[in-house]
Write a structure and sequence with these properties.
Helix 4 packs parallel to helix 5 and helix 8 crosses helix 10. It contains 10 helices and 15 strands. A 9-stranded mixed β-sheet has the order 14-13-12-11-7-10-9-8-15. The protein has a 6-stranded parallel β-sheet with strand order 3-2-1-4-5-6, with helices on both faces. By secondary structure, it is α/β, with parallel strands linked by helices. It has 2 domains: 132 residues, Rossmann fold; 178 residues, 2-Layer Sandwich (Dihydrodipicolinate Reductase, domain 2). The chain starts with a strand and ends with a strand.
Amino acid sequence: MLKILVVGYGSIGKRHIKNLNNHKKNDIIILTNRTMDNFLKKEKCKIVNSLNEAIKEKPDIAFITNITNQHIDTSLKLAKNGIHLFIEKPLSNSLEKTRQLEKIVSEKKIISQVGCNLRFHPCIKKIRELILKNQIGKIFSIQIENGSYLPDWHPYEKYGKSYAANEKQGGGVILTNIHEIDYLFWFFGNVKEVSAISEKISKLNIHAEDFASIILKFDKKIFAEIHFDYFQRPAFRGCKIVGELGTITWDFDKNNVRVYNTQKNSWKTYLKLKNYDNNLMYVEEVKHFLNCVKKNKKTINNIHEGIKVLKIALGVKKASLLKRTVQIK
């Protein structure tokens, strides 16, 4: 049985607690200012109110699910005590202290993972497989869209107070929707330069950008156009990848991956999921992390990769602010 610390008790923290206990019964400690509720009683969790108190419990691993701008400071204290780290996306809202964290993680041989759950979605995994098999030949361009209505995310909460709605806490549509930037990095590697326009253009009661139009140029001379927004209804999420021999498409709601073959002038469905439970990708990422801790091996998305993806996202914000193309180093 593992002793697991969960820092933060918002929606993603609660999801991880439930998935951890459904996977295997663990000794779970929650760092939160909230009082014990029925859910925590049912899951047999213990509450602590400070990080020092949490460290005294000597957890084996920690899930960092607090506000984005607190991720690095929290992780540093835990890493110094040799605790393995699962850090929710985005890694942070700045690069400050990220290299220091990476150094400690390396020195103490800590297993780390950044929580980008789309890497565990069957459709995203299938697309990567098709790309690696050179299914559509040389790839030229990608179009990605992720738009939804922020107040619909957690209807039981005041959306304006969420971290996603507040730039100072690490929110805004660019960092909050970093999943798309992450899986593009997973597919195509390093980004060379970025251009972007981002603003708050709706009437939503938020203090961050709710729209972004982004262009990424990868080292391989592949171009990606990304659209993010917080105001779209109905929500839409998907991508189209255009290559010399065809096109790959994915629709999040339909949960299918289709490929157009330019030689046959026809479409073929390579994956279609029926009644897919979106929680499964969260379950799989936790299983992967726990397995890597058990076997002492590198995760699919460790702190080193997390920093690279964060650099791209921060480059996007910088490009929008400066109104010019920004090089990613």
